[in-house]
Amino acid sequence: xxxxxFYIAIILVYAAVDSMACLGLNLQFGVAGxxxxxxxxxxxxxxxxxxxxSMPNAKTTNGGFQQYVLGWHLPWPFPWIxxxxxxxxxxIPFVFIVGKRLRGDFAAVGLLVSAVLLNLLVxxxxxxxxxxxxxxxVPSPFQHYWNPQSLGYQFAYGGVAIVLTIGVYFxxxxxxxxxxxxxxxxxxxxxxxxxxxGKDLRMQRTSVLILGGAIAGxxxxxxxxxxxxxxxxxxxxxxxxxxxxxxxIGGAGNHKGAxxxxxxxxxxxxxxxxxLPPLGNPELVPALEWVSIGLLIVxxxxxxxxxxxxxxxxxxxxxxxxxxxxxTKGDAESDxxxxxxxxxxxxxxxxxxxxxxxxxxxxxxxxxxxxxxxNGVTVVSDVSIAIHQGRLTGMIGPNGAGKxxxxxxxxxxxxxxxxxxxxxxxxxxxxxxxxxxxxxxxRTFQLxxxxxxxxxxENLVSAIPHQSGDTFLGSLRGKRYWGRQDHDxxxxxxxxxxxxxxxxxxDVYAGGLSGGQRxxxxxxxxxxxxxxILLLDEPMAGVHPNxxxxxxxxxxxxxxGGMTIVMVEHELAIMDAFCDPVIxxxxxxxxxxxxxxxxxxxxxxxxxxxxx
Length: 612
Hints:
The chain contains 24 helices and eleven strands. It has 612 residues and is an alpha/beta fold. The chain folds into two domains: 3-236, no CATH class; 336-610, P-loop containing nucleotide triphosphate hydrolases (Rossmann fold, 3-Layer(aba) Sandwich), CATH 3.40.50.300. The longest helix has 29 residues, at 3-31. The N and C termini lie far apart (86 Å).
C-alpha cells in the first residue's frame, strides 16, 4: 500500500479518537444539557495518565532529560484503564465546585476557566509533567514485540481504536435509551421542573460527567499511545470548541451525528488544509481553518440548528409507522375544541397508586412564619397556614401578593428566608425539592413547563417514580432488567392520556402543543408522579372555561380519593365551584381564609382583591 497505507492508518486512529471524544461530549451536552467547555482537560488528563503509567522512572531513563511523576512502567492495557479512571475521577471536583447550579452559562464559564487554570498549572510547574515542553518518548503498547512504525502495527492499532469506539457507542446508547436517559433529557430541557418531579440533578450530572470524563480519558490514552508525546499546547480551550462544532454540525443528542461530526470537523478540516497551496504567511492557513469552523457553527445554528442528523423522536406508543397529527399551536379557540375523553372512568386510585383514603381532616402541610425576601425586598411575610388532608384548598390574591412564591417555597424549588414548613409533622424547611417530590409533594408551574423535546408520552412516563431503569446502574443493566416495568409504566401513561383525550398526540413533541394541551400534559405528568400533595400554580391559565370545569371535577374526585391539592388561581368561578377553604394573600401576608361566600362578606378582602 506504500505511504498511502500509513496515511489511512493514521486517519483511522484520529477518526476513532475524535469520534470517542465526541460521543462523550454529546452525552454531556447533547443529551444531558451540560455545557462542558472544559471537556478537553478530561482527554488531556487521560493522555498524561496513560503516559506516566506506561513510562519508566524519569530519573533513570534517557539521562533524566524530562521530569514527570509516577513512571510505573505498567504494561498495556493498565495505562489505558488508568486513563479512563483518571478522566472519570476528575469530574468529581467539578460537581462539588458548581454543584446543583451546574447548568447553562454558569457551567460553561466555570469549566472553561478551570481548563485554562489547569493548563497554566501544567505549563508552569515543571516537576509535575515536564512543563511547557511536555512529555515525549511515551511507549506504544507492545513496542517490545512489534515495531510501532510498521504498517501492520499501525493498522492493528487503528483497528483496536475503532473497536473501542464501537464499544463506547453501544455503552452511551445503552444509557441514553433507558428511563435514565429519559430523565437526562428532561433535565436538559428544564432542570427546575425535573428537580420538582423528584430527579436528583446532582447525581445525574455527576454520573454524566464521570462517564463522559472516562470516555474522554480513554480517547486521550489511545491518542498518546499512538503519537508518543503530549504537551499543554495540544489541549488549549480552542480544542473543545472544535469538538462542540462537531456535535452541533453532526446533530446534538444523536450519537451517530456525533460520530459524523467528528469525521467532518476535527478529521476532515485538518486533512483539507494539508492540500491547500502555500499562502505566504504560514500562520494564515490555521487561522482560516478557525474562521471556517466559526462560520460553520453560525450557519448551522441559523439554518439547521438540529444538525445533519437531528436527535430522533422516540416513539413510545408503539405506532412507529403512523404519522402523528400536526400539533395545534393556538389560542383559546383551539383549546375549546379539546374534548376530555373517559377521564371520569379512570381508576385514579389504581393508576396513581393512591393510598387508602383517610380524609380525617388532619393537617398534612403547614407553615409557621414563612418569609421570603429578594435583595432586601420582602415578598412573603410571616405566612402561617394549615393545609388539611383530602381537601382542595384555593389560594387567591392580587398580582404580586406572593401566591406563586409561597407555592414554590412549599415545594422547595425556592428556599425560604425565614419560618418553617411542616409535612406530616416533620420539619422539611431545609429539605431539597427533589426529596420533597419523592416524599409526595409535587408542583406545577405558572408558566408552561413541559419538556419541549420530549414527546407527550415521554413527558408523562418521565414523572413516574421508582423506575428500576431510572438510575445510572439500572441503565447499565439493560432493557432485560427494566424493560417489562417500563412497558407497564407506558401503558399506565397511555391510559391517563386517553382519559384526557390526547392519545393522538402521544408521540408529538410537547413543545408544539397549544396552551391548553400543554396545561393538560403538565397536570397529567404531575398526577403520574403519584403525589400525596399536589401544588397547582394557575393550572387553568389559557384553558377554555368548559375544559377548566371538567378538570376541576376530576381534581375534586382526586381529593375524595385521598389526595390533597393546593391551587393558586385567578379565576374566581373555579374557586367558587371547587375550593374549600380559600386562602387570600395580599402584599405577602395572609389576609383571610374561608369559603368564597364567607370571603365576599369581608370588607378587607373585597377592597384588596374582589372588587378589582
